Amino acid sequence: MGFGTNIMKSLMFIFNGIVWVLGLVLFVVGIVVLIEGENWNDIIDNKTVPVSVLLIVVGLVIAIVGFLGCFGAMKQNTSMLLIYAVILGVIILVQLVAGILASSSAMRHRITCRRG
Question: Pick from 66, 73, 69, 59: which is nearest to 24 by CA?
Answer without folding.
Answer: 59
